[in-house]
Amino acid sequence: MLKTSSAFLPAVLGLGVIGFAFSTLVERAEATPTVAMSRTYEVTITNLTANQIISPPILVTHDDSARMFTPGAAASPELAALAEDGDNSGLATLLGNSAGSFDVVTAAGGIAPGTSITLTIEADGIHRWFSMAGMLVTTNDAFVGVDSMTVDGMLDSGKFFVPVWDAGSEANSENGMYIPGPPFGNGGAHDPATPEGFVHLHSGIHGIADVLPETYDWGAYGALVEFTRL
């Protein structure tokens, strides 16, 4: 089912330890939950960057057959649309039609630097994986994202830092002609150079063209996600 938050805020890994394990960041129950044990979570996403806006994020709970993105594999066209232009509509449709998805939630607006947005999402014993994504809009194809973190067994709350990924779908030219976010505003225009071709950890802004690293780089992480079970 597809839900859209009514909340609106104005309009994502720096290179942390690659071997981080999301499962160490949440508490788990000893027993595997049954399908009937549906749980509702309040999810707060905080933008940790100094000057990057995070596009309206999309969240999904799903089983182990569904993936929003896969590190090391090519980005889907729908993920590329989010990572290059902040457009989450294709992913929302794709995931909403997936038999492996349980709850798909999209925010109505982006997340400004230093601010937060709170959404609610449901999970159950089969659909106990959580994924999310939102573009860092003053980039070619960087996005803050979570890939298939298990949420079952969180007792009351949990939080974790979210890395920034490179979708590998557009070359990181840092040319303002191909940047949708401020101060450029060129959404829908994509650098024709050959991209990397697979999702990987983003190496940040390097100042090779129009995007200033002292303004738009993000350091270690792009966002903080906090869970509270309702």
List the SSEs and their pairings.
Blueprint: E1 2-4, E2 39-47, E3 58-62, H1 77-85, H2 89-96, E4 101-106, E5 116-123, E6 129-135, E7 142-150, E8 157-162, E9 164-166, E10 200-201, H3 213-216, E11 223-229
Parallel strand pairs: 1-4
Antiparallel strand pairs: 2-5, 2-11, 3-4, 3-6, 6-7, 7-9, 8-11, 9-10
Characterise the protein shown here:
This protein is mainly beta and 230 residues long. It contains 3 helices and 11 strands. It has one domain: F-spondin domain (Immunoglobulin-like), CATH 2.60.40. The chain has a 7-stranded mixed β-sheet, with helices on one face. A 4-stranded antiparallel β-sheet has the order 5-2-11-8, with no helix packed on it. A hairpin with a 6-residue loop joins strand 6 and strand 7. The radius of gyration is 17 Å and the shape is globular.
Unreliable runs, pLDDT <50, ≥5 residues? Answer: 1-34
How many independent structural domains?
Answer: 1
Report the CATH architecture.
Answer: Sandwich
The helix/strand order is EEEHHEEEEEEEHE
Q: How many helical stretches?
A: 3
- Number of extended strands: 11
First-last Cα distance: 19 Å
Helical content band: under 10%
Reported by name, the CATH topology is Immunoglobulin-like
Search tags:
single chain, mainly beta, globular, Immunoglobulin-like, disordered N terminus, 230 residues, 7-stranded mixed beta sheet, 3 helices
Q: TL;DR of this structure?
A:
With 230 residues, the chain is mainly beta. It has a single domain (2-229), classed as Immunoglobulin-like, CATH 2.60.40. The chain has helices spanning 77-85, 89-96, 213-216, and strands at 2-4, 39-47, 58-62, 101-106, 116-123, 129-135, 142-150, 157-162, 164-166, 200-201, 223-229.
